[in-house]
């Protein structure tokens, strides 16, 4: 992977060689800004992400564009970035020049979508050094600008995204229609092209079986919810992502207000459920979170699915004060660091799934001990 | 439980999407889920709204009631990129920005179903705001001018040329 920031390219060799360096320091150097810092409402909200979709005028959308068209888009955007005083320091990565493992890591760090690395010829990603800003070129749309912040920060994320958009637009001719706004490959994005997503950790609502009720309520408000890895409304790791469904007919501010209002309600309900659990079933809760802690601190093999589930319990223990002395950001970190590609990058070699389970367990043990 | 997609392997990835109270569930094996880009929620930066589109694109009614010989026949192909509207109904992707104009009639009810609106009220590109319409007008006038010249309608062409100059003047003022 072509990377300019020396400290960032943390290959396993580094990992082994600088073993004297604490794991914390290593993690500090490999993670994007959003995974390090808690941010507002960090007890419930893991991250806030804003993305806008843009296309160039008179160029077919990526899925039907010719190689020459696609290359033209990459060149035009690269040029616009270079000429913009606010964007010139961003780094352009040609995906074809990035190793498959490093591409997978870009996905695990949420900097590009899995679809984006499906085809790499004439595809690129532009990154700010702290990885708060990433711009996918020639994914579903010609340009997708994304900003991602820790915790609940929709305004900040939008402000920055808007700024990057302004910077790019100065050097590009966007496909825009006065009546229906920014034109996108799929009509579900047309208008503002804006998608705001809030990733939330909802363990107490899950334990009290309220997730389904809460989520089906908010879904009437033009908000889509996805919970993954689980039956129905369950999700191991208890992580749910809220996103606005509507992109046309509302201003960006209205879209943000709507998702903010909904997220606020869910934050309150999750907190309410946590205090209820602490009040009514403290013993059981304590037992549950310490069991999870015990397994994570001692297991010799662990799948990412199990790790996620237990990390969710430990995180609940940290957030309710039942497990003192551990930084809560450990959860965000380990969620990403124990993903297959990241793990292999850290270990410096390809790992079979059982090997991954071994390395994952040892990695988590070590990280948890450091606290 | 068997995977919804390949109907062979056991389903161990379960997805639920709730949109406006409408719940869809998918049960997939790991392989199919990955192929669909759904598995890695760390990887999938956003909810796949695209997949919802299929349920919203209604095929045009065929042979129901009378077929009126309409002078406003809806175009089947985009003049710019050549995309056939039926391709869109299958893939959910338009081919170019001009598709929105050419398929305007078919897309309007679809946009209403998706967004509850057909009118953009948000951000406008700074560089083009205000001048966008003028530039569009100049474009179409230039095309008209060429036609007039080809037809040797010089009087009309002169008129159009004047209007183009007038608009260009406006454009320079606001630049
Ligand atoms: Zn399958
Ligand atoms: Zn077209």
* Number of helical elements of chain B: 7
Instruction: List the uncertain runs of chain A.
Output: 1-20, 229-233
Strands of chain A, count: 10
Question: How is the largest sheet of chain A built, in terms of strand order?
Answer: 2-3-4-5-1-8-10-9
Give the largest chain-chain interface (CB within 8 Å).
A-B, 77 and 59 residues
Structural classification of chain A? alpha+beta
Count of the domains of chain B: 3
The beta-strand count of chain B equals 2
What binds here, in terms of ligands, is:
zinc ion
SSE order of chain B: EEHHHHHHH
* Topology pattern of chain A, helix = H, strand = E: HHHEHEHEEEHEEEHHEEHHHHHH
Main sheet specs of chain B: 2 strands, antiparallel
Could you report the average pLDDT of chain A, rounded to the nearest whole number?
86
What this model shows, in words?
The complex is a heterodimer of chains A (371) and B (175). By secondary structure, chain A is α+β, with helices and mostly antiparallel strands. The radius of gyration of chain A is 21 Å and the shape is globular. An eight-stranded antiparallel beta sheet of chain A has the order 2-3-4-5-1-8-10-9. Chain A has helices at 12-17, 23-30, 33-36, 67-83, 100-108, 154-169, 203-207, 211-218, 252-280, 282-298, 304-319, 329-337, 340-347, 353-370; strands at residues 45-54, 91-94, 124-127, 133-137, 143-150, 176-177, 181-182, 194-201, 223-227, 239-244. In chain A, helix 5 (100-108) crosses helix 13 (340-347) and helix 11 (304-319) runs antiparallel to helix 12 (329-337). Chain A folds into two domains: 4-30 and 281-370, no CATH class; 45-274, Creatine Kinase, Chain A, domain 2 (2-Layer Sandwich), CATH 3.30.590. Chain A is built from 14 helices and ten strands. Chain A is 46% helix and 15% strand. Chain B is mostly helical and 175 residues long. Chain B folds into three domains: 1-47, Wheat Germ Agglutinin (Isolectin 2), domain 1 (2-Layer Sandwich); 49-58 and 70-115, no CATH class; 126-174. Chain B is 44% helix and 8% strand. Chain B has seven helices and two strands. Chain B has helices spanning 30-35, 50-56, 85-91, 99-102, 104-115, 131-150, 154-174, and strands at 13-19, 22-28. Chain B has a two-stranded antiparallel sheet with strand order 1-2. In chain B, strand 1 and strand 2 form a beta hairpin. In chain B, helix 6 (131-150) packs antiparallel against helix 7. Chains A and B meet through helix 6, strand 6, strand 7, strand 8 and strand 9 of A and strand 1, strand 2, helix 2 and helix 5 of B. The complex binds zinc ion (ZN) (2 copies).
